[in-house]
Structure formats: C-alpha cells, structure tokens
Recover the amino acids of this structure.
C-alpha cells in the first residue's frame, strides 16, 4: 500500500462502511457537496451510507488546526477552494479524516452525540455539483469508440489522421452540467435525413448516453505556463463519472466543420462524489499498449511514469430502466461493462496536451474522457455503437427494445475498482431520466 489509509485491514466506527459491496469504505473517502431540505450546500465525505459533515467538523474543532487554510476551505459551499490548495493539502486532509473515521483510533470522536451530529444519512441528502465548473472539456480518448463511430460515418476512413498523434477534445458547455438525478429534457434541434432536401426542426429522435470518466482540476496553472506531463497529476484533484448526453441526429447534421455544438450542450450529468487520486493509488495500471505500427507519443506526451502507471483500472457499467420495467418491478438492465484502463490517451496526457499552448486550467475545471468503449460488443459505451446507429435495437426484459432513448428511460452508471490485496472502492451512481 502507498500509505496506511489504504490498508485493507482498516475498519470504521461507521458500521455501514464495512457492508459487503459498499462503494465507500474507510479506504475511499470521496468528497462531495450536499444539503438537507432548507439548508445551504456544504462539503461532505462519503463513508458507508453516511456523509461526514466536514463543515460541521471544522466548526466543532474536530479537524486539527494544523491543517490551516484547509479548515476554512472545507466550510465553503463547493470544493473549489480545497481543490486550489493542491494535492499535498488534500492528501493531508484525507489522512486526518482516515484517523477520524477509523474504529479504535484515538483521533476518532469519543462523544456519541457529536458522532451522530457529524453524520448525515445519504438517503436524507440532496447532492449538488461538487464544484463550480468554470470550463468543461470533453475528449475522445477511446480508440475503440473513435473507430466504431468513424466506421459508421466513414467506413473507408474511420480514424482521422490526427487521432493517434494527440488527444482530441472540444470545449463543452459548463452551464449545462447537472448533478446526479437531474431530469434531462429531450432537446429540440435541427436535423436532416440523408434523403431529405432540407433540414427540419423538432425534438431529437436519436437521444443517446455516453459512458465517461471525469477529472476535476485541482491546482491551476498560470496563463502562458504549460503543464509538463510529469507534473500533470499534481494538477488533478480526483475523478468522477460523467454522462455526456448526445442528440445524435442533431449532432450528425451540425458537427462539420466545427464539431459538437447543440447536440451536446443541453445536459451533461456529473456524479456527486469525487474519488481522490490517493484513494485510486492501488488501482493504477500501465498505459494501454499501442498496436504495432502506431506512432509513439510525441515527447511532451510521454514519460516513463505515464507508461508504467498512467491508466486507472476502473470498471464502469451502464444500465437502463424504462418506465415499463419500473412498473413491472424489473431491475435495470445492464447494457455495457467497460474499463477506463483501455483508453488510448491517459488523463495525464489530456492535461498536458490541454495546457501545452499555455491554456490556463483553473480549480474546479472538468475534463471528461469521451465515451469509454472496449473491444467487445458488451463493452460499448453508447447506443450509437451498441445498436449500430439504431439498426440493431437492444432487447429488454419486458419485450421492449431500444435503438435510442425514449421518454421515461433512466440511464444509470456505476463504477468500481477492485484488485487483490486492496479494498474495493466505488464511485456511487450517475443517473438521469429523460423527461422534464
């Protein structure tokens, strides 16, 4: 283990942190922003089925005063101030929280009343976006996804010439990022059928989801100061799940020559808990091997450390629940199971490339991986790939089928990391239901 906060023998005085299959054992401790009815948003840490109220812990003097500015930062209504303090600060805070939450630890609160006041049941909390996101960038980092989608539109030339030379991305719309559980209205846009003489305007008929990993920027960089790959992870706070909803018919008509626009900007769902890079340390993996004949990354996108452990071994699942399935008592149907370790470009490479021209990344900025797809049919991260642009609809347990999403459909992402010798950790859920 990298440090004792990851020791699989650790137990918490919060009983649910030991529940089989929990996403939030004491080895995880992800950060988020929550509130209860009538209360202002505040920062918390997930532990079992509870939330440790960090703002209250700071006010009650439970946090060590040696943390300095951190004590003020955790009393803010969003994570930006904490993110801005940098990874060493977040690491020190996480270490103290680990001691605070461990069973039989001298640092743990001995007062039963205080313990109960510090905890808020997750079932009673409303979760908010973890940070005020000033800028949102979406990448295209899965070569399987890029190849599959390219083949649907350009069978003779699926990958464009630049794909294997640099991480491809576009600047998304930060204002339409929404937290887990927010309804997703069906967007209206301009569409044009292949055999039509002119476009029409109306609700999208090809609404899709995209399974993605998100990365929150911690410490920023000054305008004009690139971030070397060797320092890229010093600028990261943690990872989350992202559903980059896509209106494929709108997107197909508008994307040339400048790329995604209204087909993407109507909603992007972000999961509520940010899993720190410290918690993910046992689940690092070598950068995905490149097929023979592919170019090696240019020097600014290559370091021995990124080659050895630039990837994250995160299993992500996408499931669908229709209105008929819920009425009949059916559990959500799993559509795909994929893994972020297979991405062609690492998150560190995305950061380094994003800032190579001097672009200033700021605390709370969100980078998303683009659709995470694998090489097999059951690992495809969106319906566009899974149904081959709607030609092969997915069969569901109720006898329904889906080429694209219908009103009332709910899409649920979950993710976890598991490895022998380490405690399984998870990301919670990233959910959205189509309809106002």
């Amino acid at each position: 283990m990298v440090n004792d906060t990851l020791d699989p023998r650790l137990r918490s005085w919060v009983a649910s942190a030991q529940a089989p299959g929990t996403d939030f054992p004491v080895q995880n401790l992800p950060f988020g922003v929550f509130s209860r009815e009538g209360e202002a948003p505040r920062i918390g840490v997930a532990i079992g089925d509870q939330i440790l109220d960090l703002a209250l812990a700071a006010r009650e003097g439970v946090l060590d005063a040696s943390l300095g500015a951190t004590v003020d930062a955790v009393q803010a209504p969003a994570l930006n101030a904490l993110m801005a303090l940098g990874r060493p600060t977040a690491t020190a805070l996480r270490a103290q929280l680990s001691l605070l939450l461990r069973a039989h630890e001298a640092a743990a609160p001995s007062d039963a009343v205080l313990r109960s006041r510090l905890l808020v049941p997750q079932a009673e909390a409303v979760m908010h976006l973890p940070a005020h996101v000033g800028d949102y960038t979406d990448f295209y980092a899965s070569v399987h996804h890029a190849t599959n989608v390219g083949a649907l539109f350009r069978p003779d030339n699926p990958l464009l010439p630049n794909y294997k030379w640099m991480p491809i991305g576009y600047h998304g719309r930060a204002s339409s990022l929404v937290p887990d559980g927010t309804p997703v209205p069906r967007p209206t846009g301009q569409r044009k059928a292949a055999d039509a003489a002119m476009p029409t305007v109306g609700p999208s008929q090809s609404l899709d989801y995209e399974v993605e990993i998100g990365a929150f920027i911690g410490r920023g960089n000054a305008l004009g100061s690139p971030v070397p790959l060797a320092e890229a992870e010093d600028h990261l706070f943690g990872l989350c799940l992202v559903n980059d909803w896509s209106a494929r018919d709108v997107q197909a008509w508008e994307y040339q020559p400048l790329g995604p626009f209204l087909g993407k900007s109507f909603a992007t769902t972000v999961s509520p808990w940010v899993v720190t890079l410290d918690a993910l340390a046992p689940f690092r993996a070598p950068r995905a091997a490149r097929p023979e004949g592919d170019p090696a990354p240019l020097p600014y996108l290559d370091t021995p450390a990124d080659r050895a452990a630039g990837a994250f071994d995160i299993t992500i699942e996408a499931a669908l629940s229709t209105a008929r399935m819920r009425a009949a008592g059916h559990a959500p149907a799993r559509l795909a199971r994929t893994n972020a370790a297979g991405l062609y470009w690492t998150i560190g490479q995305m950061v380094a490339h994003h800032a190579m021209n001097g672009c200033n990344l700021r605390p709370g900025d969100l980078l998303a991986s683009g659709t995470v797809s694998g090489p097999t049919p059951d690992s495809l991260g969106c319906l566009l790939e899974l149904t081959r642009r709607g030609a092969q609809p997915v069969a569901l347990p109720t006898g329904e089928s889906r080429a694209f999403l219908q009103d009332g459909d709910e899409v649920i992402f979950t993710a976890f990391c598991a490895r022998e010798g380490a405690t399984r950790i998870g990301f919670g859920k990233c959910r959205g239901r189509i309809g106002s």
Notes: The longest strand covers residues 425-433. The first helix runs from residue 54 to 59. The two ends are 46 Å apart (CA to CA).
